[in-house]
UniProtKB/TrEMBL annotation, chains A, B:
Molecular function terms from GO: homoserine dehydrogenase activity; NADP binding
Listed name of the protein: Homoserine dehydrogenase
Organism: Nitratireductor aestuarii
Superkingdom to which the source organism belongs: Bacteria
Record keywords: Amino-acid biosynthesis, Methionine biosynthesis, NADP, Oxidoreductase, Threonine biosynthesis
NCBIfam families: PRK06349.1 (NF004976)
EC primary class: oxidoreductase
Residues noted as binding NADPH in the record, renumbered to the chain: K108
Family statement drawn from the similarity comment of this UniProt entry: Belongs to the homoserine dehydrogenase family.
Length: 435, 435
């Protein structure tokens, strides 16, 4: 006996939305076999009705207003692919949940800002709010944290969550190019936006990290509490020095449980060249999860792109299609939204770890000794110290510290700067353990 | 309002079973929060009732016969951790499903042999049969293939599925040790069994691969059709030659869709040193999945160990706890068991790929030319050919072929052997593309 189809409405027909419509049509019979009933696109909404998207919309009804679409009694699930942390995306998701529709969204900005509120509405109404596509594209990290790792206590989650940054860093390393050159190339090839700030300054990574943090630690989402540093200051000299020391530079989002709270930070990071995450090149994303029971798990794969993101949306839809009304679902962020603990921020100055410090110094007698004594004053012990540029006016001093604190490093570098020893801005890059 | 607890019975209290009982007790309140109801261990069964396992069994009832336990009306879920592809494991899982219990199992041998039959019983009775722990321990590869990749067409799935083999190969490479030395060390350290045949000859990998193949390609499980080659013939010379050529040797299980059917093969494999999977060291497992929509996804993590495996069992239990009776579940192997296609075997002789061939030859005039002509006769084009051992009685010839067929390589090597050119057994290792 054929079960009733799962009727969906899709708002937003950009790259991902178009791909979802196409894939649902192409995979119709296979999805029906897997889910026990068809998944049928009934309604769509997008800004431009006339644009040719290369998909057949003849059997699908067009609705101009996404909020009206979200409320339509003709659909069971609302798929939000509009984007943006407010406006029509927020209005339509809320309307869908309030009128009894499950929601699937790829919108990290929306969840980062309103996720807990929306989760609460979904849970109160016994609805699913699925968002696999919102973090790391096609990599099933939400399903892993929310379902597979039930009962695990997460100690750290970190990852390469922005393909644009990883593409730029990969090319800088492979070809010795400057950040600006690589960015221009990435823009030309469509891997970076005309205004790249959102990606390269780490905001996109921060949105995604904030969602992972909530899932990992059972706390409310708090993107505004994330320490943020982008990759625009990374130079070929840093990348070369990292390589010589056995490290590779990646923009990581890291969330970590500490004694004083939860650290959330996005910054260029040195990871051991021999680690699995260091081999994640180009636009590929990766997420590592450390837990008490499991140890370390790593997932890597395409973090963006129409089809990869559509794959995650369709996986979310299939989960809904396999379920039936009236059964209780797992909570949206792993724990009931009303029980998510307030986010307790660990102060960045208390962060503990190794540091890479690159200083450009005037070639004067005693510079080296002054630097060493400033480090010692702040109880920073050095794993290595190297000096370059014997014949030059300026010398480069590269230090790698043993485990120390952010505060100690900031103080030491500030003192060295005030001592007038530096001929250029100091460079400080955090080192992250990785298996 | 507190929902009724999910009542479970566990048969088998080895390392994994003990860890499951401990973790369910330790994580009681956290799991209740995540699942909306408690998961409570009601019954256990194991061979030795008197052994001290370091866990509190005082609140849990002991049942001597696992089949009786499986049928008990006091439980909702039967957890099978007995092991073995028949006997009490099969009898109890069948009894559980036939008496309306969901089943969670870590038993790859059982599923490899009877998985489709058991899935059919589960599906006819509207029950869940979950088995995340059966393949790659704590890595959520079953969930990924069964749920996250809904609608994706898989072209290839491959992985490092046996920690013992990967541990041995990792140490052979790192320390230049022989296979026998590493095996002895692994046995001493508890990473290999006293009788290691099952692991090192690839049977364990084959069981796991057969399950992944069914999930990936929607076909019946057919472990007996897997081409099988273990790692006991791998020498330090192979590992060194591989490294010089930019490869690392891993025991892979590979399932791949070809024009003539599905290839399933387990053999030592050369993967590019720069690939992510090449960085998977020691007892860690990894699985790569290639699909039409997603591209390539890689999951790596602990493939064995009490807690990591228990984590997967508990994830499976949590999924059941979050569900409620009366809703339709997704099929056990991704597609309904009755609709799984018969496994259509692609012949190994038709396998296409690159090959590494290492020959030990007598130092006679014309040997090199004879070898080259035998390769040409079989239309094998060479990417590289290197000859070592200038001053020795025997010379080593190392060839890497361009894409060719298994049949061509077998024929060429057979002819070279019959030509009487070889002073030792020829070594042939397949090369696998990996990102």
């Amino acid at each position: 006996m054929a079960a009733a189809p799962l009727r969906i409405g899709i708002a937003g027909l950009g790259t991902v939305g178009t791909s979802v419509v196409r894939m649902l049509a192409d995979k119709k019979s296979e999805l029906e076999r897997q889910c026990g009933r068809p998944i049928t696109t009934i309604l769509v909404s997008a800004r431009d009705r006339t644009r040719d998207r290369g998909i057949d919309l003849s059997q699908i009804q067009w609705v101009d207003d996404p909020v009206e679409l979200a409320r339509s009694p003709e659909i069971d699930v609302f798929v939000e692919l509009i984007g943006g942390d407010n406006g029509p995306a927020m209005a339509s998701v809320k309307a869908a949940l309030e009128s009894g529709k499950h929601v699937v969204t790829a919108n990290k900005a929306l969840l980062s800002k309103h996720g807990v509120e929306l989760a609460q509405i979904a849970e109160e109404n016994g609805l699913l709010l699925n968002y696999e596509a919102a973090v790391a594209g096609g990599i099933p990290v939400i399903k892993t944290l929310r379902e597979a790792l039930a009962g695990n206590q997460v100690s750290r989650v970190f990852g390469i969550l922005n393909g644009t940054c990883n593409y730029i860093l990969t090319r800088m390393e492979a070809e010795g190019m400057s950040f600006q050159e690589c960015l221009a190339d990435a823009q030309r090839l469509g891997y970076a936006e005309a205004d790249p700030t959102f990606d390269i300054e780490g905001h996109d990574t921060a949105h995604k990290l904030s969602i992972l943090t909530s899932l990992a630690f059972g706390c409310q989402i708090s993107a505004q509490d994330i320490y943020l540093e982008g990759i625009s200051n990374i130079t070929p000299a840093d990348i070369k020095a990292a390589a010589n020391l056995g490290y590779r530079i990646k923009l990581l989002g890291v969330a970590q449980r500490t004694e004083t709270g939860i650290e959330q930070r996005v910054h260029p990071t040195m990871v051991p060249t021999s680690s699995v995450i260091a081999q994640v090149h180009g636009v590929t994303n990766a997420v590592a999860i450390e837990t008490d029971m499991l140890g370390e798990l790593l997932l890597s794969g395409p973090g963006a792109g129409g089809n990869a993101t559509a794959s995650a949306v369709i996986g979310d839809l299939a989960d809904i299609a396999k379920s039936r009304p009236g059964f209780q679902h797992g909570p949206v962020f792993g724990r009931p939204a009303r029980e998510l603990a307030p986010y307790q921020r660990a102060r960045m100055r208390s962060h503990e770890g190794g540091y890479f410090i690159r200083l450009t110094v005037h070639d004067r007698l005693g510079v080296f000794a002054s630097i060493a004594s400033r480090m010692a004053e702040n109880e920073i012990s050095l794993e290595s110290i190297v000096q370059h540029g014997d014949a030059a006016e300026y010398k480069t001093v590269i230090m790698v510290t043993h485990e120390t604190t952010e505060l100690a490093v900031r103080n030491a570098v500030e003192r060295i700067t005030n001592d007038g020893l530096l001929a250029d801005k100091p460079q400080v890059i955090r080192i992250e353990r990785a298996a």
